[in-house]
Design a protein that fits this description.
Layout lengths: L3 H7 L2 E4 L3 H13 L3 E4 L8 H14 L3 E2 L8 H7 L4 E10 L12 E7 H7 L5 H9 L7 E6 L6 E9 L2 E9 L10 H14 L8
Parallel strand pairs: 1-2, 2-3, 4-6
Antiparallel strand pairs: 4-7, 5-6, 7-8
Helix pairs in contact: 2-3, 5-6
Amino acid sequence: FEEVDDMIKESDIILECASQEAVFQYGEKILSNGRSLIVMSSGAFSNTSFLKKMRGIAREKNVKIYLPSGAILGLDGIKAGKFSELERVELIVRKNPRSFKIRDEKEKVLYDGDAKRGVSLYPMNVNIASTISLAGIGFEKTRLKIISDPKVDRNVHEILARGSFGEFRIKIKNVTSKRNPRTSILAAYSVLALLERLTSELEIGC
């Protein structure tokens, strides 16, 4: 399609896998035209006023906004744990310096703080922090640590969740995309899994 309007007219559901800026630019138009939207650049929703507006349009037009699990595991546990007293959610992201377009020769902590600021500082690397925050206890309470590590050749994500239900810790070592080292192959597969779920008569997991 040469024009976004033509794509919207010919589509039932639209997948965004470009950037947070693309979500800001086209998200409202897509929903307003009665099309559901799959968002990979979920960091756009760290702007809570924008998220509120998007959800309002989706309700009005009776469409959905879908956030795939991306390159991580454990979202089902975080979503379920929210119904108990979910006390702590933490994400540690460890990537090779080339993912950040830098040349560190030693391990370096690039960020250690709340998810909201971390997502804004590294919009192309930690969209999953936004997805985790939305699934759990919010951007301000979710902790995020970003590490540049020249010794790793995979994108490593470690998730800790603790609450009255107990706790879990998950560590994922993702193979990176050959075209884009900031992205894990599992993220693409998560979209396929979502599309399969939307068209299946059987849903597994929460």
